[in-house]
């Protein structure tokens, strides 16, 4: 790994820093999250059509830029600094890699270019609140987290008529039917679906096969499919929009079509995606932590107590120095995790360290945000100030993708660091 950023990577950071400084002020962020879609469509068009962010980690043949997870992580770090609400993580971080890994040729050709140019936003829907488990971040994702054939979860069965296949046109433009003319129907409910209320495409994890051939597969569902009910939820972190998705006999298309991958392939693809997403989230958290620290340093230089700026007190200096060390260590871990995820996608030997980097970054963000609230004094506790937004981002991401101790326990289990660590991790997650 070369720790020095290339000129192209530096340009990504400079361009996004200039854009977000101008277009993502605190007031504009608050206004954007309260729109029906939960983000600023004009900003998203700029990010996608002019800067090509959704296609950064997609190959040229699919309409992407041909870069890697590393460049996407740098973009997420800059967006994280201002807590910019965008569908980038859900579309390019969660869904695009799954379509690229598991989709049939017609599905990839029809969907990935539209995701790359930002005209199609997508979301990953998993049953209940099991997103972190589905991605293999806090537990083994070969278990029955998709329902296991029991009541609840999301169940899939073959329909009697044609479903929304490639040739039907809901998610794809043209081409022959990939599933032989037999569609699928989905029943169930998913909670905490990132950007699920506004996405044009849903990739839904559903259980199929009953008890005899139990397995979890992924399905494509149109955002306007009959029987699909989507309700935006009130979330702790309003800059990370979430939705409850109800599927009531909804027509779906198997991801992979007639080539539909088995449950083991789906679990492996979800784990690989989870590791890359953890690296992206870690970079995003580092950006937020760094900005919270910057704002606190600026404030303690101005706020006076006992006739002098509070930043001149040694105790305050020590506290902020500790935060600085945490942020820089988390940044190094996030960059390494992104590099390792990029190497793994290119079929090179690579470690899956995204979960560890995410644990460290979330702790750095929580510490930085907490110090921002405390050192801003009375104003730091008010709704008018922005310090609480950073604290909520840290807490919200831990609820969705963590917490940190489970991320570390899962990493220890996978690496077999301690005898019996697998059983311990299962006990902790239970």
UniProtKB/TrEMBL annotation:
Region (Disordered): 149-179
UniProt domain Acyl-CoA dehydrogenase/oxidase C-terminal: residue ranges: 279-413
Keywords on record: FAD, Flavoprotein, Oxidoreductase
Ranges annotated as spanning the membrane: none
Similarity comment: Belongs to the acyl-CoA dehydrogenase family.
InterPro entries assigned to the protein according to its UniProt record, in alphabetical order: Acyl-CoA_Oxase/DH_mid-dom_sf (IPR046373), AcylCo_DH-like_C (IPR036250), AcylCo_DH/oxidase_C (IPR009075), AcylCoA_DH/ox_N (IPR013786), AcylCoA_DH/ox_N_sf (IPR037069), AcylCoA_DH/oxidase_NM_dom_sf (IPR009100)
The keyword Oxidoreductase appears for this protein: yes
Organism domain of life: Bacteria
Location of the Acyl-CoA dehydrogenase/oxidase N-terminal domain: 6-118
Naturally occurring in which organism (per UniProt): Streptomyces beihaiensis
Cross-referenced PANTHER family: ACYL-COA DEHYDROGENASE, ACYL-COA DEHYDROGENASE FADE28
Keyword Oxidoreductase on entry: yes
Name under which the protein is recorded: Acyl-CoA/acyl-ACP dehydrogenase
Entry cofactors: FAD
